[in-house]
Amino acid sequence: MNNNEATLSINNAICAHSMWKLRLYSAISTGTTDANVETVKCDDKCEFGKWLYGNEIDSGTKQGSHYEGIRRLHAEFHKCAAEVLGHAVGGKKDDALHMFSGEFSNRSNTLVRALTKWKHELTPDLPVWNDFQKLLNAL
C-alpha cells in the first residue's frame, strides 16, 4: 500500500463522512433525502468503503489493528447514519435529532479521530491536523 495514496483516501473519507452531518441535518429539517436508507447502511458502497474493502490495501495492513478498528468504526458510522436518515424520512424528526446530536455525532467524531490517527501513523512527517479536525467537529 502506497502511504501517499492511503493518506489521500483517508483525507477524502474524512471530508466525505463529515459531509454526512450536513446531509443528515438537511434530511431531518426537510423530511426528505435523495439517499436510500439501505444503501447508506452499507459500509462498502461509499468510495472509502470500496477502498477499505478493495484490493489496494495489502493483506498485512488489513490484518493490523488500525485497519480492523477503522473498518468496525466505519461500519458503525454507516449503520447509525442510516438509522438517523430512516427516522428523518419516516416522520420521526425528534428521534432523528436526538440520535443525530448524540450517538451519530459521537460515532462520527470517533471515526474522524481514528482516521486522523491512522493517517498520521502512515505519514509521521506530516503535522497532526488538529485545526482541521476542530473545523470538522464544528460542522
Quick structural gist:
By secondary structure, the protein is mostly helical.
Give the helix/strand layout:
Layout: H1 3-30, H2 37-41, H3 47-53, H4 59-62, H5 65-89, H6 93-122, H7 130-138
Helix pairs in contact: 1-5, 1-6, 5-6
- Helix tally equals 7
Order of helices and strands: HHHHHHH
> Strand-residue fraction?
under 5%
Average residue pLDDT:
88
Could you list the spans in which at least 5 consecutive residues all have pLDDT below 50? none
Give the biggest sheet.
none
The first-level CATH class name: Mainly Alpha
Shape annotation:
elongated
Using the coordinates shown, work out and report the CATH topology: Four Helix Bundle (Hemerythrin (Met), subunit A)
The H-level CATH homologous superfamily, spelled out, is Aspartate receptor, ligand-binding domain
What is the domain tally? Answer: 1
Structural class of the helices, strands and pairings?
mainly alpha
Notable traits:
mainly alpha, elongated, 78% helix, Four Helix Bundle (Hemerythrin (Met), subunit A)
Please explain how this structure is put together.
By secondary structure, this protein is mainly α. It has one domain (3-138): Aspartate receptor, ligand-binding domain (Four Helix Bundle (Hemerythrin (Met), subunit A), Up-down Bundle), CATH 1.20.120.30. It contains seven helices and no strands. It has helices at residues 3-30, 37-41, 47-53, 59-62, 65-89, 93-122, 130-138. Helix 5 (65-89) packs antiparallel against helix 6. The longest helix is centred in the C-terminal third of the chain and has 30 residues, at 93-122. It starts with a helix and ends with a helix. The model has no long low-confidence stretch (mean pLDDT 88).
